[in-house]
Amino acid sequence: MAAAPAGLFAVYKPPGVSWCRVRDAVRARLLRELNEAPAPPPRQRIRFLPAAPGAGGAPGLVPAWVPVLAEHPLVRGPRFTQLKVGAGHRLDVKASGVFVLGVGHGNKLLTDRYHCHLTKVYTVGGLFGKATEDFSDTGKLVEKATFDHITREKLERILAVIQGTNHKALLMHSNIDMKTQEAYELAVNGLIRPMGKSPPIITAIRCLQFALPEFQLGISLTF
């Protein structure tokens, strides 16, 4: 039995494509290229074959090395027919970005990676003055409002309040005694993370672009 590849790697998902289609495409490509790779020569085994006529000796059997026909590609078929590929997290169909896939035994590492509570960074675009039923730019418009009174300073004040509220939630879910030296060092290095299952917590949020009515935010999440 051939050994299947194993490990973790990142893959880019374009917008308009579901994450499972990307995963399936990667799996199909890996299987095809694995089966197209040069195969090792078939094993040899000893068989006793009839002696060639006219050898000058008495008729009988002679030992000979012959390939194991059961391992011939036309008999065996493709070396790889299945490959387990798992996703570390998922992205919305309309989103684009990088997510992690696990292959073979590398899928076990996805659980370890999840429990590390690594920070995920998102870039989100928005439009003031309009609201849709599904909060997307292609959803049905359900409300319109004015936006001339909005300034970048007002937006950044609101973002600061959001970040402060989430920082309190992060401290609560970290289960760390904030009076200890360990807590101080973790806070200085920005390494405080939830210790168990928690709701998504914003660790950082800032305005990247502001050009009314459009704006763009950079959001760092952990959970």
Structural features:
223 residues, Alpha-Beta Plaits
Q: Would you write up a description of this structure?
A:
With 223 residues, the chain is an alpha+beta fold. The protein folds into two domains: 1-34 and 57-116, 2-Layer Sandwich (Alpha-Beta Plaits); 119-223, no CATH class. Helices cover 28% and strands 30% of the residues. It contains five helices and ten strands; from the N terminus they run βαββαββαβββααββ. It has a three-stranded antiparallel beta sheet with strand order 1-5-4, with helices on both faces. The protein has a three-stranded antiparallel beta sheet with strand order 6-10-9. A hairpin with an 8-residue loop joins strand 7 and strand 8 (141-144). The longest helix is centred in the C-terminal third of the chain and has 23 residues, at 152-174. The two termini are 40 Å apart.
